[in-house]
Amino acid sequence: MNNNTSSRLLSLDFFRGFTMFLLIIEFTHLFNFLTAANFEGTFIYGLGTQFHHHPWAGLRFWDLIQPFFMFIVGVAMPFSYANRIKKGDSHGAILKHILIRCFLLLFLGWWLFCQRLGIIVFNFQNVLSQLSVTILISFLIMRKPAWFQLAFSLALILGMEIIYRMFWVDGFNQPFVADKNFGAWFDLLISGNLSKGHWVSINAISTTAHTIWGVLAGQLLMSSKTQKRKLITLILAGTIALAIGYGLNPVTPIIKRISTSSFVFASGGWTLLALALSYYLIDVLKMRRGVKFFAIVGMNPLFIYLFAHMGGATMINSILKPLPATFFGWAGEVWVGMITASLASFALWLICYWLYKRKIFIKI
Prior knowledge:
By secondary structure, this protein is an all-alpha fold. The chain has helices at residues 10-26, 30-34, 43-49, 65-86, 91-117, 127-140, 146-166, 182-191, 203-206, 208-222, 227-248, 261-284, 291-298, 301-320, 322-328, 333-357. Helix 1 (10-26) crosses helix 4 (65-86), helix 11 packs antiparallel against helix 12 (261-284) and helix 15 (322-328) crosses helix 16. It is built from 16 helices and no strands. The protein is globular, with a radius of gyration of 21 Å.
C-alpha cells in the first residue's frame, strides 16, 4: 500500500460501507423477522438475536454497530484533514467546518428523535447527536501526541465510571440498574423523561473514546510504518482492549445502553480487530471481491441513513410488498416479510449506486 496520504484506504471504504448497509437494513425490519415465533429454537432465531441490542448486561453483535461507525469516523479524520491541508485549507478553516458539521449532526440527531416521537423533547441519544460530540472532542486533540490522545480517552472513560459510581441523588445512585443511574438522571434533568429503552444521552462522553481510538488508528495507517507493523499494532491494541473489557465485566457489567467502561473497552477491542481483519484482507492481501458493493453505500452514509430513517425504507417496503405477497403468500406472512425486506434492502443499495454513478456525494 502506498503510504501517501492521498491514497485510498480501501479497507476503510469497505468497513464503513458494510456498517452502513447493516444500519439501513435495520429500517427494512428484516432483522425483526429473524426472531419471529416461527423460528424459535432454530439457528435462524439464534442468529436473529445477534441483530438486536442486548436488553441490558451483555454484548451482542448489534451492540458493536454504533462503536464501528464512531470508530470509522475517527479513522477517516486524519486522512480528510491531511487532504484539506494539502489543498490549502488552514487549520482554522477546517475547525470552522467541523463546528458547523457537528452542530448540524446534533440538530439532525435531535430532530430525528423528535420526529419519531411526534413531539419536541430534548434527548440526544441518536447516533448523529452522539457523533457531534465525539467528532468535536476528537478533532480538538487530534494534533496532540498519540500518548496524549490515548490518555485523554482513558480519562473520559474513568471520569464517567467515577461519576456513575459516586452519584449521590436518591433514586439514581445505582450505577448499573436501568433508569436508576446518573445517565437516567441527566436525561430526566434536560428533557423531563426517560428513554423507553434505557438509553442515555451522556453516552457521548465515554464513547468519544471510540472516535479518538479511530483517529489513532487512522494516524497509524497513514504513517510510514510497514504493513506488518500496522497490522500487529491494531491486533495487539484490540486484544488488550478486549482483555480489559471482559476482565472488568465482573466488577463493571458490559452494558451498551449506558456505555459502561467495560463496554467501551470490549466493543472498542472488537472494532480494532475488525479493522485489522479488513486491512489485512483488502489492503495487504489485495482481496477486492465485495469491496465495491459495500463501499458504494459508504460513500453517501448521511443521505442513505436519513432517507431510510425518515420513512424511505418503509415506503419502499410498501411499494414492493405486493410482489412477494403474490408469489410467496403460500409460505406465510413471516417469509413474505423477509423477502420484502430483502428486496427493500437491495433497493436502498440501488439508490446509493445511482448516486455513485452520477458522482453525487451528499456531505456536511
